[in-house]
């Protein structure tokens, strides 16, 4: 439990380099990380050195004594290993050894891999194992004191004298260990999948993949990805919570009555880009009603709230549900608004819920902007010709269907909705319709850091 295990090939500068009389990588990692168990991988040449004076275990024992602790050793002997440059051999051999070590580890144990000792083929074998992400471990690299290559000198090697004069035995020695941050192939692949989901605005799918990665891999972008998911769900309270901590992104409409409507319109365009045509068509009506209200208020100085009343809607279990608005007979009585509504329908007005057709009649009656009237009429026809079909029947809605039933493409319909916003008092800035793409760029940039 809570055991630190080090697996280390033994290299030419281990345990102490004669060229500078300082720790080799093996000894230095043990000095810094204090493993309780060291697994030493020895080739034919290293075993011959070990047989001369037990130099590797001697130095490790002296270090453990100096640090007032114990270290357990396991030596893996490869006495027939002469071709130390063969990468394939080490990859397979290391994989089997490390797999066995991991199986024996308990909760809380950690594994270190020394990727500085041994031949280039040995180091590559360990690095590839970590890149494939098969084993939970840390790779430790040790810089040379001169920040360059060490000489491999073994002639007249005196391990006892070298230990006595080892500069790293002094207080305040320089820690030359570095944990190698090498993303595993699994992480790389999953992050590429996350990026693809982001590029098509599927933040929920991106989140599901991100949640399979360790927090250390996603910490730079996870919260931002959660914000994107919440934004697409119109959870603006959570979006605001995240953005209060950031200075690199803002919503196009930060506050005001039209904020939710504009974010809803952005979602509508996302649905169109994702070719979710049925959802796109069904979602037009709520936005169209809100837009017409904003236009009436701005262009005709008519506030619908002055002619409506709020009613509580009760659920089946007699619990209060969502509040709804209806036309109020008393507030409408004797007004020009009521007169125009009655004229528009050619019959007594039925009051009830506020519909987009009610608001269309009022805009046609009170606005003097011909272009606005045409725009409202066209959008109302789109809603009338296809919206009920998409909402109430099981039917395939495609770009072709939309064009045949409305006379417009999905993009043309979206452009008309965008044009409607110019008749409100929202004063939208140039480029605000690219907000989701800007958010995606920020997400992708955060993933690269």
Percentage of residues in helical conformation: 40-55%
- Total beta strand runs: 10
| Cα-to-Cα separation, first versus last residue | 35 Å
Q: What is the subunit organization of this protein?
A: single chain
The main pleated sheet reads as:
6 strands, mixed
Average pLDDT, rounded to a whole number, is 88
In terms of DSSP E residues, the strand content is 5-15%
Shape: rod-shaped
Estimated radius of gyration? 36 Å
Number of helices, where a helix is a run of at least 4 consecutive DSSP H or I residues: 21
Structural class from helices and strands?
alpha/beta
Low-confidence stretches: none
Query: Order of strands in the sheet with the most strands?
Result: 5-4-1-6-7-8
Write structural notes for this entry:
There is one protein chain. The protein is an alpha/beta fold. The protein has helices at residues 25-33, 44-53, 55-66, 87-104, 120-132, 159-164, 185-199, 203-210, 215-218, 222-232, 236-243, 259-273, 277-282, 284-299, 329-332, 336-345, 356-366, 370-392, 399-406, 410-421, 435-448, and strands at 4-9, 16-17, 22-23, 37-42, 72-77, 110-114, 138-142, 177-179, 308-314, 320-327. A six-stranded mixed β-sheet has the order 5-4-1-6-7-8. A two-stranded antiparallel ribbon has the order 2-3. It has a two-stranded antiparallel ribbon with strand order 9-10. Helix 7 runs antiparallel to helix 8 (203-210), helix 8 runs antiparallel to helix 10 and helix 16 (336-345) crosses helix 17. The longest helix is centred in the last third of the chain and has 23 residues, at 370-392. The chain is rod-shaped. 29% of the residues are buried.
């Amino acid at each position: 439990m809570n055991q630190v295990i080090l697996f280390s090939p033994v290299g030419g500068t281990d345990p102490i380099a004669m060229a500078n009389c300082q720790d080799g990588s093996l000894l230095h990692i043990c000095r810094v990380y204090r493993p309780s168990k060291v697994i030493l991988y020895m080739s034919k040449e290293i075993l011959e050195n070990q047989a001369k004076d037990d130099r590797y275990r001697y130095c490790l024992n002296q270090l453990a004594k100096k640090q007032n602790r114990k270290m357990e050793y396991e030596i893996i002997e490869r006495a027939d290993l002469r071709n130390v440059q063969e990468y394939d051999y080490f990859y397979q051999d290391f994989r089997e050894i490390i797999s066995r070590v991991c199986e024996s580890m308990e909760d809380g144990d950690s594994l270190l891999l020394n990727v500085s000792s041994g031949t280039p083929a040995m180091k590559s074998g360990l690095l590839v194992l970590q890149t494939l992400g098969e084993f939970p471990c840390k790779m430790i690299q040790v810089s040379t004191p001169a920040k360059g290559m060490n000489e491999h000198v073994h002639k007249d090697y005196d391990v006892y004298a070298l230990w006595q004069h080892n500069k790293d035995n002094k207080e305040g020695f320089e820690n030359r260990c570095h944990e190698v941050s090498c993303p595993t192939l699994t992480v790389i692949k999953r992050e590429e999948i996350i990026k693809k989901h982001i590029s098509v605005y599927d933040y929920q799918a991106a989140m599901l993949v991100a949640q399979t990665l360790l927090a250390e891999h996603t910490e730079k972008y996870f919260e931002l990805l959660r914000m994107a998911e919440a934004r697409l769900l119109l959870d603006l309270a959570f979006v605001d919570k995240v953005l209060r901590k950031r200075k690199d992104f803002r919503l196009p409409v930060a506050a005001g009555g039209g904020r939710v409507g504009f974010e809803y319109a952005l979602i509508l365009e996302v649905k169109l880009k994702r070719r979710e045509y049925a959802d796109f068509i069904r979602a037009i009506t709520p936005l169209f009603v809100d837009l017409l209200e904003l236009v009436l208020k701005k262009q005709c100085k008519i506030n619908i709230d002055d002619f409506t009343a709020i009613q509580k809607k009760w659920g089946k279990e007699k619990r209060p549900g969502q509040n709804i608005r209806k036309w109020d007979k008393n507030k409408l009585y004797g007004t020009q608004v009521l007169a125009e509504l009655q004229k528009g329908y050619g019959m007594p007005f039925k009051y009830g819920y506020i519909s987009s057709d009610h608001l269309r009649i009022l805009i046609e009656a009170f606005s003097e902007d011909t272009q606005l009237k045409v725009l409202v009429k066209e959008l109302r026809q789109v809603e009338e010709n296809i919206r009920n079909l998409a909402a109430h029947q099981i039917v395939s809605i495609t770009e072709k269907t939309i064009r045949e039933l409305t006379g417009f493409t999905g993009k043309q319909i979206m452009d008309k909705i965008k044009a409607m916003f110019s008749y409100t008092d929202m004063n939208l800035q140039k480029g605000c319709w690219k907000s989701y793409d800007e958010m995606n760029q920020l997400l992708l940039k955060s993933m690269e850091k």
